[in-house]
Write a structure and sequence with these properties.
Keywords: Transferase. GO terms for molecular function: transferase activity. It holds the Pfam family Glycos_transf_2. This is Glycosyltransferase involved in cell wall bisynthesis. Among the domains are: 161 residues, Spore Coat Polysaccharide Biosynthesis Protein SpsA, Chain A; 42 residues, no CATH class. By secondary structure, it is α/β, with parallel strands linked by helices. The two termini are 42 Å apart. A hairpin with a 5-residue loop joins strand 8 and strand 9. The model has no long low-confidence stretch (mean pLDDT 94). Helix 13 runs antiparallel to helix 14. The longest helix has 17 residues. Strands 3-2-1-4-7-6-10-5 form an eight-stranded mixed beta sheet. Helix content is 46%, strand content 17%.
Length: 362
């Protein structure tokens, strides 16, 4: 069985650190805490879990802090978390099995990172990260903000998920890091440009965000997954302001980078449904259902677009076309995926009043 060092960088995390460590402490053999300038009780809380606490002056560089944390590890493998991450019980059990069975020739283990959720707790945004890496390989972090861990060798993908449960509201920290880099004259990579656009978008600086998304799309490099996601953000903005011509343009542009993604198919279905062009909308929602979601996708993924959303929209479309049986069937298919969704529950009662037996569809 391998042994593991948990490495974390923290600052002012008194409200989340214990919650995080309580879900991880029995999975690892060493806990390394790097404090970057806490002014609350973070370090006092950390002392309840480990003696390995180090100070690192904050220099607007996450990669530097993470590399320092990795340098303090002493076990076979390094695992990292943020203070507002937790490991749910099912994932804890799978993590234990992984630890007991992992082939020591493996250089990196990837896990899902679930970062967005709906009101029912269903995952709405997830992506994959290298999460457990062999210490002897001395893998390094790169990038002051939205950094990444560069790995190579034998990599395996698992279904283990890390769950991000943020408590604090969004701050300007990341945006300011990018602003300061621009002021210094730093040259942005395609990855920098993409994540800078995301920060701008999240801060509702839409004109600047769209300019940077377009700049990113015109760069010759960059992950296709990120380019597809950028097209979606631009499309959502144009849809928000009522410009469906440009919204559709960017949905179709996403097809340049891969076969149609379910989220873009659903967007196109929405545009037609809003015009009561239900047959055209049905085409796109059905294509969303047929599209393939790779379990190994490294880009941002909203599982809802591959599951219940196209079905509930097909329910609406078929009902408006007078095909009530098909409408009922698709509501039940949606209910299979998301039984507590308010709109699905409303439809379930509606169809029951029409005389339909509410049973799970096959």
């Amino acid at each position: 069985m391998i042994n593991i060092s948990l490495c974390m960088i923290v600052r002012d995390e008194e409200n989340t650190l214990a919650r995080c460590l309580d879900t991880a402490k029995d999975l690892v053999d060493e806990i390394i805490i790097i404090d970057t300038g806490s002014k609350d009780k973070t370090k006092e809380i950390a002392k309840e879990y480990t003696k390995d606490i180090y100070d690192f002056p904050w220099i607007d560089d996450f990669a530097a802090a993470r590399n320092f944390s990795f340098s303090k590890a002493s076990k076979d493998y390094i695992f990292y978390l943020d203070a507002d991450d937790i490991i749910l019980q099912e994932d804890r059990e799978n993590f234990k099995k992984l630890k007991e069975s992992l082939d020591p020739s493996v250089d990196s283990v990837t896990m899902k990172y679930n970062v967005g959720f709906d009101e029912n707790g269903n995952v709405t945004l997830s992506y994959r990260r290298n999460r457990l890496v062999k210490r002897a390989n001395n893998f390094k972090w790169y990038g002051p903000c939205h950094n990444y861990l560069a790995v190579n060798g034998k990599i395996i993908n698992t279904d283990i998920s890390i769950t991000h449960h943020k408590i604090r509201h969004q701050t300007d920290r990341n945006l300011n890091i990018y602003r300061n880099r621009i002021a210094r004259g730093d040259k942005f990579s395609s990855r920098d440009t993409f994540y800078f656009a995301n920060e701008l978008y999240d801060h509702k600086l839409f004109d600047e965000a769209l300019n940077n998304y377009d700049k990113f799309l015109n760069m010759p490099d960059g992950w296709s997954e990120n380019k597809i996601y950028a097209c979606g953000k631009i499309a959502d903005y144009y849809h928000f302001i009522g410009d469906n011509v440009n919204a559709m343009k960017y949905c179709f542009k996403s097809f340049e980078y891969d076969s149609p993604n379910a989220d873009h198919c659903c967007r196109l279905g929405d545009y037609f449904k809003e015009k009561s062009s239900f047959k055209q909308a049905i085409f796109w929602y059905e294509l969303a259902i047929k599209s393939q979601k790779s379990n190994d996708n490294w880009g941002f993924v909203n599982p809802s677009y591959w599951t219940w959303i196209p079905h509930i929209q097909l329910c609406v479309c078929y009902y408006n076309l007078g095909e009530i049986d098909l409408a009922y069937t698709h509501n039940e298919l949606a209910r299979n995926f998301n039984p507590n969704e308010e709109s699905i529950l409303y439809n379930t009662i509606f169809f029951k009043n029409l005389g339909y037996n509410t049973k799970k569809a096959e």
